[in-house]
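Table S2 (continued). Query chain:
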Amino acid sequence: MRRKERLGKGLQALIPAATVEENHTLPAESIQELDVAQIDPNPFQPRISFSEESFEELKNSIREKGIIQPILVRPSEDGRYQVVAGERRLRASIEVGIRSIPAYIKEITTDEEMLEIAIIENVQREQLNPIDLAKGYQLLIDECGLTQEDVAKKIGKNRTTVANIIRCLKLPEKIQESLRQGDIKEGHARALLRITDPQVQEKVWRRAIKESLSVRVVELLAQKFENGAAPPPPKTPTTPRKSAYINKVESKLREKLGTQVKLRTRKEGGSIEISFYSGEDLERLLDIFEQIKF
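Corresponding output:
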């Protein structure tokens, strides 16, 4: 697939002097009022789920204030248009009975570019859960021929963040669904990915939900199962007492590196132990270290 000119961070590069952030509008001369009956849905709209509650809030906002942010469309056949970005705003407008909507018309010549813009608009505008984010990122890779680095630049994230999110798609479907529903957090999911035995992985997952285990506890459980140890009977594994400062530093390092980190202190000095679980995981860590300016 032909690599297209970068879109920059979101839609900003497509719409000069404009932004997709809330409470901002597009240049007046770029906007036309279009009949909603002239506008067709995006045939390449990625299948990403959205909260019905947030959709109802959007409809209420449109009833009270109208459309603040114009949608983005491209010309189609017979004087019609296709939505590129803003399909939820269009659908909400139709449902509340609005007959026309402000739209920015942009010539977009390829279907690949249209899909790319639609996905980026979705992942930037919505408070998406990790699974829907991961599917959006993976669509950009599969359908638009991008690398993880390309995706990271387009959405304004670092490559490690994108890689960690995409790894969640390796989990079984039922665990993915629990992450989508908010039963577990992304940190729980990353810990579960370290367990290669599907039965053990499911057991730890069910226990994490039933006992409302913290990410830290699931990380410790995953480590013990990974090493072939039997499941510990207590709800919370016991660990040597550490100072609040050491715990805080470990937590920050785990968050930045996306893996288990242990600080071992001695009377003078100490050591830092950083875990990796595959060759790919090691490469990911090396990428992070290379970004550090010594």
